[in-house]
Every structure is written in C-alpha cells, then in structure tokens.
Amino acid sequence: MEGTNPVNKKLAAALSGGAVLVLALSGCSSSDDNSDKLNAWAKQVCDAVKPQARKISAANTAIQQQTSDNSTPADVQKTDAQAFQDMSDAYKAIGSAVNKAGAPDVEGGDKKKTDAVKELNTISASYGDLKKQVDDLDTKDQAKFADGLKGIATQLDKLSQSGNDALAKLEEGDVGKAMAKQESCKSASPSASASKG
Fold first, then answer.
1. Burial of 99 (0-12, 13-18, 19+ CB in 10 A)
2. Rounded to two decimals, what is the model's pTM?
3. Does residue 31 carry a pLDDT above 50?
4. What is the DSSP-derived secondary structure letter of residue 50?
5. DSSP 33
6. Which residues contact 107 (CB under 8 A, 6 or more apart)?
7. Residue 47: pLDDT above 80?
8. What's the CA gap between 145 and 72, in Å, rounded?
C-alpha cells in the first residue's frame, strides 16, 4: 500500500510554498511618508486578501492532513481536488480585488496593477488545471496514482515560485510599505507577530 503517501507529503510541501505567497503581503516594514491615497488602496487590497489567505491556508492544511499512511488514493484525490479548487477561487478573488482597487498611487502603478492581476489570474487558472489533473488520476492503480501526484507536485513548485514573483513585484517600494501598515495584511500572516520589521 505504499507509494501514495510520500508523494502526497511532497505535494503538501510544495503547496505550503504556494500558501506563503499570499501571506507575503504582510511584509513588516513601516513608513509614514505614504500618501493617503496609497494607504486607502493598500487597505482595500489587504481587507480583500485576508479571507482569501485564510482559504489558501485551509486548503494547504487539508492536503497536509491527508498525508497520513492510511489515506486511500480516493481520499487523497478528493481532498487535493477540493484544495486546488479553493486555491483557484482564492487567487481569482485576489486578482479581482487588486483590479477593483485600481492602480496604486505610485510611479508605474498602472503597470504594477496590470501585471499582478494578469499573474494572479494565470495562477488561478493553473490551480484549476491541477484540479482537473487530480480528478483524472487513476485511483485504482496505486503506482500510477503516485506517479501522477509526483508530476502535479513538480508543477506546484513552479507555480508557487511564479506567484511569489508576481506579488513581490506588486509590493516593491512604497506599495509594500503601505500594505505592511494595514492590520488586515498583518493578521493575514501567521508569522507577522513573530517577525519584527
């Protein structure tokens, strides 16, 4: 009966990298020279991101909980598919929130917004694609199922990296400083209280 579980652990590890990317919104730096406009923009985005960050974190936890040795391929498939669907929805919602907030009040703000929204929507679509792949795995053949999960875990690694890059660009400079001051961005991250910026 072995084969599934180590691979699903790899999947969970890859996934936790992805969950970090939204929580990166809570960088811990502060500056008071931001404009009111920029602070208002940051508050709008952070408030919208907070529930989505929770959703991503919950999806990540669900996959990690499904890594026990007595999980059947069918259980793993069901949990992973739901988690990927939730993540796809969450990233889409974050993209919509950034789009709705408009361009941040900084130089090149419009490009920052456009690039971030495009990237977030791409990530959302990619998680949707992973869900389809999980749905299509053969749960009756343990070895095939494990191989399929391995391929998905590899894609997940790449996906979490591109997500990190997308948000890192959005948060460069004053945008990140304004976001770091928002309570909702701070509390979106489990590590915010542990780190002093």
1. middle
2. 0.81
3. no
4. H
5. -
6. none
7. yes
8. 11
Q: How many CB atoms lie within 10 A of CB 195?
A: 10
- CA-CA distance, 46 to 43, in Å (whole number)? 5
CA–CA distance, 168 with 191 (Å, rounded to integer): 17
Q: Of 24, 51, 11, nearest to 131 (Cα)?
A: 11
Average pLDDT over residues 177-181: 85
More reliable by pLDDT, 107 or 69: 107
100, with CB counted inside 10 A (0-12, 13-18, 19+), is: exposed
For residue 38, the 8-state DSSP code is H
Q: Where are the alpha helices (DSSP H) in the chain?
A: 4-23, 36-65, 73-101, 109-135, 142-170, 174-180, 183-186
pLDDT value, residue 22: 53
Say if residues 124 and 99 touch (Cβ distance below 8 Å).
no
First to last CA, the chain: 47
CA distances from 18 to 65, 138, 170, 190 (A): 17, 25, 17, 14
Q: How confident is the model at residue 197 (pLDDT cuts 50, 70, 90)?
A: very low
Distance CA 192, CA 148 (A): 36
